[in-house]
Design goal:
The complex is a heterodimer.
Chain A: H1 6-15, E1 19-23, E2 36-37, E3 40-42, E4 50-52, E5 63-78, E6 81-96, E7 99-113, H2 115-122, E8 129-132, H3 141-170, E9 174-178, H4 185-189, E10 193-197, E11 202-203, H5 207-213, E12 220-222, E13 225-227, E14 236-241, E15 254-259, H6 263-278, H7 295-307
Parallel strand pairs in A: 2-11, 5-9, 7-8, 9-10
Antiparallel strand pairs in A: 1-5, 3-13, 4-12, 5-6, 6-7, 10-15, 14-15
Chain B: E1 8-11, E2 22-27, E3 38-43, E4 46-59, H1 64-70, H2 75-79, E5 87-99, E6 111-114, H3 117-123, E7 137-145, E8 148-155, H4 156-159, E9 167-170, H5 177-192, E10 200-206, H6 223-231, E11 241-246, E12 268-270, H7 275-279, H8 282-285, H9 293-306, E13 310-311, E14 321-322, H10 326-343, E15 349-350, E16 353-354, H11 355-371, E17 394-399, H12 405-425, E18 432-437, H13 440-443, H14 452-467, E19 469-475, H15 483-487, E20 491-494, H16 499-502, H17 512-519, E21 525-529, E22 537-540, H18 549-555, H19 564-575, H20 581-588, H21 593-606, H22 611-619
Parallel strand pairs in B: 9-19, 9-20, 10-17, 10-18, 11-12, 11-17, 18-19
Antiparallel strand pairs in B: 1-2, 1-6, 2-5, 3-4, 3-6, 4-5, 7-8, 13-14, 15-16, 20-21, 21-22
Helix pairs in contact in B: 9-11, 10-11, 12-14, 19-20, 19-21, 21-22
The chains are: A alpha/beta, B alpha/beta.
Chain lengths: 308, 645
């Protein structure tokens, strides 16, 4: 059997004595993020500084963009523990001569739940991959669902890494990733990969430095720093303001860029920023994050949603 | 045979659903699909053929404002964007045919392919009449798309009757598309009209310059046109059997046509009518107000009792009237007026006809020889189309371009009426006649007085097909033609059109894209509507292998008008090359021109062995001029002349 749909699984769950359910949680197509401060190590200067980027200049050669999507819904309850059907996908679209074409795409359907629930459904030949939740604590529907979200996020991250790796193995061109490179040591060390983060749940500074950081003028970048911490691979990073924020919001047009932790990255930071500045157009409307969402990333996301 | 890959896919949304008559599909940006392309949809156990009627392109840009924002107000910035927006080519197609035809269902969401040769045949339902055993297909051109050139045929049963008939072509002037299309179609009919359907001939009215004056002369055509001819199974050749008719100019000797080059004289003859031929169509010459019941009754009286008969009325004169010509008729009228004047005051009625009515009819009829001089003679000379001797695949061209509109109306009315009469009696010589009329908006206008010619064309369009009388008409503005006339044309053809014309309600059924294509249609391309085609089709036709009017006058420049004596000589010389100019000039010395014309025309009709002698005998003995006596005229009464020196 090919990978089942949520509706098929719902029927299968009923047949197995589980309680069928149909609920699509809010924000089920995005990754869960927690607001934190992440300390940094300054690389380019002794203090946080702002540098003008100069005129926007597109990267002259081919460039690729990677993004992933996820969607999930509760299809049944095994007792009180949710059983979730999730679809995750990732793709790379390469731009050659202004035109984007898809060069890598992977899609997976995953059934997430407690091991006993997955075992009950196993006989239905649902065709989905399985991801088991830890069962060392008694079932709690809310806590279990939080674990499901983390599991799906992690599965998506793995898929993105897999797809990105395949592309980089086959291509010498730059790959721009929606999100952090730090999730993969391979990515973090790749001198032709950029991570572009539009979410600022995790902030690199505190106090007055944070205040300065969030008031970065349009067309400027910060000096290079390196996020510290044990749970991530080391990368170099800096912020870049794509659009003026004044009169809008502190985060308007603010992205954080990650690249390999090398001197070459520091040397190239200005050129990369001019390139990313050029990627502001075309704007990614009607997406509400258009001020930070590069069109190439947006195009991958739209492609994956359309195929889903 | 390799299977062509799909070029698109049907999409259906709540706002743009597929229906049994329309569907939408998208293609790659580089697709060869264009407006007018025929496509095939394969899926869900169904084959659907459609023709592209509209196209849309848009990107994921939500509002133009976002483009401005992205470029920061600088158009150059927008052009410098490193990535092209995701863009779509979305086409709308009208369904031509579904297989199976029942149950009729919405077009399935499936792959779309460009039509191939066999698809074009099926899509246009040409399989119903193109059969190896009995094909009635008349090639009209090739459908072209993405390198494909598929012949398109019209069904002869729906072009020349009896199922439907008539063809109307619309297009702007000056591109020669209308004339070329009609010439090509006639050639196609002559070459492909099936023998079992009978014989066919054409009567063409040349109403503009030299348009149709050289149909029998080969014109140079290019390799592409030859290839198109071959693709359609036609031979590029001029018409083999063409006869030209043109009225004389006012001098009664030089033909009123641009086809007067001596080398073309063999099949060019004068068109000359007399009183008898004209009187039957007097209504053409009189406007509606003129032809009241009283005038009509008097004209009927003339037709029934006087013209062509021996009419006796001792009150008018002792000898019977033998009215054969306009001159005889004038003599007859004069006798009536003299008689009534002699009766004195209060005598207003002659044989129940009021004098005012008689005068009106006399004025109108008398006016004919002036306005239609050259066509209508008052001396009894007649040279008409060879009624009853029409041959299969022949063309009679009547050149009326240079004559008065009233005379043109007379020619139309009489020729079409005679065609009708002969076809009713089945004694024309052929089974079908195609009547070609250009400038239809002039002869059958949608507005204006209801003329005899308009009624005649309406009758022809509504009832002609039962007789085998078929109208091929053309005009620049279809909207200005009587709706019922063009509406009865089973086949409608459109060349390049004027945008103002396309804005008329009659074109509302065409999509904006189709209208835009029509407004820029290149020479040699047409849009065709035919009963078998559920949607109009664009085709390309080859240039016909005949001389165009312009080329014709360059290659065969019209002969200059000859002086009277020289013109007479040229006519006699054509009958007998031994006749010299000196002989003719000697003969004409002192003769009245009218007598000479009468004798010459009689000689041309008789075609005697010795034309000059015959002509001389008809002229008769020369009467020596008698000088009046030059005596002094005596005054009525003597007067004193104060100025006498």
């Amino acid at each position: 059997m090919s990978a089942g749909t949520a509706a098929q699984l719902r029927k299968a769950a009923a047949a197995c004595g589980l309680t069928p359910a149909s609920w699509v949680p809010e924000a089920s197509d995005g990754r869960a993020e927690q607001a934190t401060f992440r300390p940094v190590r300054l690389i380019e200067a002794d203090a946080l500084g702002f540098l003008p980027v100069g005129l926007a200049r597109p990267w002259p050669g081919p460039v690729a963009f990677l993004d992933g999507v996820q969607r999930y819904q509760i299809v049944a309850y095994a007792g009180v523990s949710p059983v979730v059907w999730a679809e995750i996908a990732a793709a790379v679209r390469e731009r050659v001569g202004r035109r984007l074409r898809t060069v890598e795409e992977r899609r997976r359907r995953v059934l997430v739940g407690r091991p006993e629930a997955l075992a009950a459904l196993r006989g239905t030949d649902h065709g989905c991959e399985e991801a088991a939740l830890p069962s060392d604590e008694p079932p709690h529907p809310i806590r279990d669902f939080t674990l499901v979200r983390r599991t799906v996020d992690a599965e998506r991250g793995r898929l993105e890494v897999e797809v990105g790796h395949r592309y980089r193995m086959a291509s010498p061109h730059w790959l721009v990733v929606d999100g952090s490179l730090a999730q993969s040591p391979q990515w973090a060390a790749d001198q032709r990969m950029l991570g572009v983060m539009k979410s600022h749940a995790s902030l690199p500074f505190t106090g007055t430095d944070l205040e300065r950081y969030l008031r970065l003028p349009a067309g400027f970048r910060t000096t290079v720093f390196s996020p510290a911490g044990d749970e991530v691979a080391p990368v170099y990073s800096w912020a870049l303001r794509l659009w003026p924020w004044e009169g809008r919001d502190l985060f308007h047009g603010l992205i954080r860029v990650e690249a390999a932790p090398t001197d070459e990255t520091v040397a190239q930071a200005g050129e990369i920023c001019r390139w990313l500045l050029a990627e502001r157009v075309p704007v990614s409307t009607p997406d509400p994050r258009w001020d930070r969402l590069l069109y190439g990333i947006y195009a991958v996301e739209e492609f994956l949603k359309a195929r889903g | 045979m390799p299977v062509s890959p799909p070029i698109g896919r049907v999409v259906a949304t709540e706002l743009k659903p597929s229906t049994p008559h329309q569907f939408h599909f998208w293609t790659a940006l580089e697709s060869a699909v264009g407006i007018g392309a025929i496509v095939r949809v394969e899926g869900a156990g169904r084959r659907v053929f459609g023709i592209v009627t509209d196209g849309f392109a848009y990107s994921d840009l939500q509002t133009p404002m976002h483009d401005v924002i992205g470029a920061e107000g600088d158009p150059a910035g927008a052009a410098a964007a490193p990535t092209d927006r995701t863009e779509i080519r979305l086409y709308t197609a009208a369904v031509l045919r579904q297989i199976p035809e029942e149950p009729l269902q919405p077009v399935p969401i499936a792959s779309v392919f460009l039509a191939e040769d066999a698809d074009v045949v099926t899509a246009l339902r040409m399989d119903a009449f193109i059969r190896p055993e009995a094909s009635t297909g008349i090639p009209v051109g090739v459908y072209t798309a993405a390198g494909l050139e598929a012949p398109v045929y019209l069904d002869a049963d729906f072009l020349l009757g009896p199922e439907a008939a008539h063809l109307n072509i619309t297009g702007v002037s000056g591109l020669a598309t209308k004339t070329s299309a009609i010439e090509f179609l006639l050639s196609s009919i002559f070459q492909k009209f099936p023998a079992q359907k009978g014989s066919v001939a054409a009567v063409c009215f040349n109403v503009k310059g030299p348009d149709l004056c050289f149909l029998d002369q080969p014109g140079a055509i290019g390799a592409d046109d030859r290839r198109l001819h071959a693709r359609l199974g036609l031979e590029p050749r001029p018409f083999a059997d063409v006869r030209y008719y043109a009225p004389y100019k006012a001098d009664g000797l030089n033909l009123n046509t641009l086809r007067t080059h001596p080398s073309l004289a063999a099949n060019t003859e004068p068109l000359v009518w007399g009183l008898r031929e004209v009187l039957d169509y007097a209504e053409v010459l009189l406007n509606r107000d003129d032809v009241d019941a009283k005038a009509g009754a008097f004209i009927d009286f003339l037709e029934d009792r006087v013209v062509g008969r021996s009419f006796e009325d001792p009150q008018l004169r002792d000898a019977p009237f033998e009215v054969q010509t306009f001159a005889d008729l004038e003599e007859f009228f004069r006798a009536i007026f003299d008689f009534m004047e002699a009766l004195g005051r209060g005598s207003e009625i002659w044989r129940t006809h009021h004098m005012a009515t008689i005068r009106k009819v006399r004025n109108r009829l008398g006016n004919i020889t002036t306005r239609a001089k050259g066509l209508v003679t008052d001396d009894g000379e007649v040279n008409d189309l060879h009624w009853g001797q029409f041959t299969d695949r022949s063309i009679q061209v009547i050149d009326v371009a240079g004559i008065d509109p009233l005379a043109q109306d007379l020619v139309f009315a009489r020729v079409v009426s005679k065609l009708r009469e002969h076809l009713e009696r089945r004694d024309l010589g052929v089974d079908h006649v195609v009547v070609v009329v250009d400038e239809l908006n002039k002869y059958a206008p949608s507005e204006g007085p209801d003329t005899y010619v308009r009624r005649m064309l309406l009758d022809l369009s509504e009832r002609g097909r039962y007789l085998g009388l078929v109208l091929f008409s053309a005009q620049q503005f279809r909207s200005q033609v009587l709706r019922r006339v063009v509406g009865n044309a089973g086949t409608a053809v459109f060349g390049r059109m004027d945008m103002d014309e396309l804005a008329m309600p009659g074109y509302a059924t065409l999509s904006p894209a189709t209208r835009a294509k029509l407004s820029a249609l290149p020479k040699g391309e047409l849009m065709v509507r035919h009963p078998h085609f559920t949607q109009p089709i664009f085709v390309r036709f080859p240039r016909p292998a005949v001389l165009t009017g312009r080329e014709g006058v360059e290659q065969f420049p019209p002969a200059p008008d000859l002086p009277f004596a020289r013109a007479v000589w040229s006519h006699l010389h054509a009958l007998d090359p031994r006749v010299t100019t000196t002989e003719v000039e000697d003969l004409l010395e002192g003769r009245r021109e009218a007598d000479v014309r009468q004798a010459l025309h009689a000689t041309r009709r008789a075609r005697p062995d010795k034309p000059l002698g015959y002509f001389s005998r008809l002229l008769g003995r020369r009467v020596a001029g008698v000088e009046p006596p030059r005596g002094t005229v005596r005054p009525l009464r003597p007067v004193d002349d104060p100025y006498r020196p």
